[in-house]
Amino acid sequence: MTGGGKDGGKGRLFTVGLVTAWYSSNIGVLLLNKYLLSNYGFKYPIFLTMCHMGACSLFSYAAIAWLRLVPMQLPRSRLQLAKIAALSLVFCASVVSGNISLRYLPVSFNQAVGATTPFFTAVFAYLITVKRESLLTYLALVPVVTGVIIASGGEPSFNLFGFIMCVGATAARALKTVLQGILMSSDGEKINSMNLLMYMAPIAVILLVPATIFMEDNVVAVTMELAKKDFNIIWYLLFNSSLAYFVNLTNFLVTKHTSALTLQVLGNAKGAVAVVISILIFKNPVSVTGMLGYTLTVIGVVLYSEAKKRSKQ
């Protein structure tokens, strides 16, 4: 009996450690992105995303081929590879848009807009699969959208271009979720998230190289020039890129050792934690109206999660 208790305690401790690592990496990469793109003055969001995807390519392969964290799954056909490429394109659009938005918006408002992901997921699921949710589920989306409208009106650092980019990032993230569910749903094409990342990340790098060359001219030379003045930029980029992979790894492990629903609940809380930490670090002005709007959005997301859970029972 005692051994079982010890095992149970170790299991709980392991889960708490995983969740802590997931929180730390998620919030860490978000804050470091903001610091680099806004405060530090490294104004190259596409190049930064390319660094993230490069790290994800290397670490994913190492984790699967060498460390064997999960069995390697090979693509079954050219069609499956084409589907993975399509997902990678949407994934790129989401990450690049999100990074661009951080140049213009504070993390607190970025997270408020990002919390509307369930709204876009429901819209795309209906438009693409004609999948209807229960009336209660749709009603729960009202405070989600209303909260962001209120937060936008009360945001002292509101920037229209940054807002559009942030909405685009949120919509693309939701679209990827819906497409992934459709494209990888058949038994012959099911692939776990770690293997999917291993194939998506190199494709993303290939897509981002020309975008970086044409849209962020001379970025490598500028980065090298920055490094001569402050070599820390290289460490920031390496650490930031490694964290980007760690986000995906801990996301997979937390889902594996808990459940997708637990991850969803933790994700709702993560946004609120990120907002508080970012305000303390960057000291961006926050209005009472903005915080009320964000709180309403989070409440809406929680209600939406509960409504979806009940509709599946």
TrEMBL record:
Coiled coil: none annotated. Keywords: Membrane, Transmembrane, Transmembrane helix. Residues 18-305 form the Sugar phosphate transporter domain. Its main location: membrane. InterPro entries: EmrE-like (IPR037185), Sugar_P_trans_dom (IPR004853), TPT_transporter (IPR050186). One of its GO terms (cellular component) is membrane. It is a multi-pass membrane protein. Pfam families: TPT. One of its GO terms (biological process) is transmembrane transport. It is found in: Membrane. This is Sugar phosphate transporter domain-containing protein. The gene is LOC101755760.
